[in-house]
Amino acid sequence: MYLCSMICYDDIFGIATEEEFEREALRLFRHQAVACAPYAQYLQLIGVAPDSIQRVEEIPMLPIELFKSHDIYCGESEPQIVFTSSATTGMHPSHHAVADLSLYERAFTEGFRAFYGEPSRWSIYALLPSYLEREGSSLVYMADKLIRECGSGGFYLHNYDTLLADMAQNTKPKILLGVTYALLELAEQYAPKLSDTIVMETGGMKGRRAELPKSELHRILCNAFGVEKIHSEYGMAELLSQGYSFGDGIFRTPRWIRVLIRDVNNPFARLANNRRGAIDIIDLANISSCAFIATQDMGIRYDDGSFRIEGRVEASDIRGCNLLVQ
């Protein structure tokens, strides 16, 4: 399937080697450097000619905050959906227009399958109150589709008794996917010992509670739920793909994603593996927007391509590379 004359979905999701990733990333960059107007303007402002880029590491990353102020879109038709991020009071949410929902569905389904196998072998129970209480959540869309493929599970707000009763009656392996503050609330109020269940946290406290160090949070949840490890999902409205951690705090991504680390004090300088800096993400599933994103997360990339999240960039909204914010 094609989104434009240059980009084939099968070429993106069929990537198996570094050489293939390099080829597809450079091809998508050259397309988006022209077709995505805000990205083209950004490249012009920083003085980068697209033809001068010969390696993936040289590709300039678009500051993620521009998804709040600009329409980052280069689809050939009207978008089928616009996903939005959660936002605290007084903040503008990011918006991510998607030209083809089947592309997003393929990205999250193949990503899930790569780490957890066929969705049909699982039951997914989604405890995502802050996401369900607003419109435009890409996480809710993903969870809904995966639950339907599982054939069992469902969404829950604050009805913890019903959630635990439904899980207890189900003999299939289960994934409890929850926003962090809701999982912590469930742990504190019920401390249910869960069997044959993966507990997967996503997001954070969403302003509902004080943030906890991940190690402390996972210790509390492990003790309450009677599990050895807490899995994590790493995603955001501005990306169409996810990373997963099996409980060691180390995230891994599907083969069409790469994580790079930039110097906080120089957003155009790359850091070597095993050094702490700001996270850049290349998500080649972002065909109709921009695949090259400078996030506001801090972290470390390891030699095998996995990475760890270590907080947020301080004063990220005013760092030097947001040249299009006026």
Folded structure, characterized:
By secondary structure, the protein is an alpha/beta fold. Among the domains are: 1-62, no CATH class; 106-245, Rossmann fold (3-Layer(aba) Sandwich). The protein is 31% helix and 23% strand. The protein is built from ten helices and 15 strands. A seven-stranded mixed β-sheet has the order 5-4-6-7-8-9-10, sandwiched between helices. A hairpin with a 2-residue loop joins strand 11 and strand 12 (266-270). Helix 2 crosses helix 3 and helix 9 packs across helix 10 (214-225).
Tell me the structural class.
alpha/beta
Major sheet attributes: 7 strands, mixed
Mean pLDDT rating: 91
**SSE pattern:** HHHEHEEHEHHEHEHEHEEEEEEEE
Specify the CATH homologous superfamily of the domain at 106-245. ANL, N-terminal domain
Question: What percentage of the residues does DSSP assign to strands (E)?
Answer: 15-25%
Radius of gyration, Cα only, in angstroms?
A: 20 Å
Q: Helical residue percent?
A: 25-40%
Q: Which CATH class of the domain at 106-245?
A: Alpha Beta
**Poorly predicted spans:** 1-5, 316-326
Major sheet: arrangement of strands: 5-4-6-7-8-9-10
- CATH fold-type name of the domain at 106-245: Rossmann fold
Our count of helices gives 10
What would you say about this model in short?
The protein is built from ten helices and 15 strands. The chain has 326 residues and is of the alpha/beta class. Helix 2 packs across helix 3.
